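Pilot study result, target chain (357 residues):
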Amino acid sequence: MTSSARRATIADVARAAGVSTSTASVVFSGKVNVADATRARVLEAAAELGYAGPDPRAASLRRGRSGIVGVVLSGELRYAFLDPVTTAMMDGLAEALDPAGAGLLLMRDDPHGEEIPPIAEAPVDAVVLIGCSARAEQALDAVRQRGLPVVVIEGDAGEGVPQITLDNREASAKVTRRVFQLGHRRAATVTLPLDAARERGPLTAERVSAATVDVTLDRLAGFRESFPESPGVTAAASLVDEGMIAARALLTDAGGALRDDRPTAIVAQSDLLAAGVIRAAEELGLRVPEDLTVVGFDGIAADGLGSLKLTTVAQPAVAKGRAAGEQVRRMLDGEAGESVHFTCTYREGETAAPPPV
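Predicted structure:
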């Protein structure tokens, strides 16, 4: 019997069963026919020793691959999957990687304290980086040092890194232009986080100049094409609750009463934020769209809209994830990865109307 201090090996099983190591090995591989009596002896010995099969770590070393693709997400993982856009991208990514038999390992982009990024030591064959914030850039540096294939979804990773991009500025400009064409001149925006700190607060020139999240900045630039001087609030995440907090800041004064100079339209950088804005507006006694126009970005099924169909721009989230997975497969097969660009589609809804008289 082997010591409980170490894991039983195939050699231990072979000795206990009275067969060669190679014979014991093929019993577990299933690739060669073995006499029933021999198979039974090997399996009985394995059960007595607590041997469940070959060590997957050793197998991965022999193959030179782990069979795992790392996915680096920003922020808390528990929040990431509250966003249907992230879920849809992960569906597309998993679908594209399925033919390769690859699993997914999800990680945050921010180490704790002075720790190195988790991706620096993770047993992965390739990496998909979602976004490219300041913290994500640290993870990207670690991946480059390891020489692993990497694909970035919506982020500037620099020359030589395949990117899956979206027309964030153009799509934001399109839905905002619709608001302007309806006659609104007092509009405001609720943005996604500006940087790794993810602090909510007023959208000031100083905060924008220090921002590091490309998606937020691109969508803001699209909004500014129609409303260059309009106010805004930054949310801490793409969540309905964050949209509610931002809407209250834009629509009410310090005492909680509706402001006389409140915006007649709010352009949200995600549908979840837009749903939060609508919920807060209704709690304040405002009707959407009669008293307040609200538009979003993403084209998802968001809770909190009731029977309203949101005016928004729809992005191909599943296709983005699928494209990232396809590029990972190409690079693992020794081919060069390619960047892929996607566009959004304007979707007319029931939440935009001319401003109240």
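One observation from the pilot: The two ends are 87 Å apart (CA to CA). A full batch analysis is planned for the follow-on phase.
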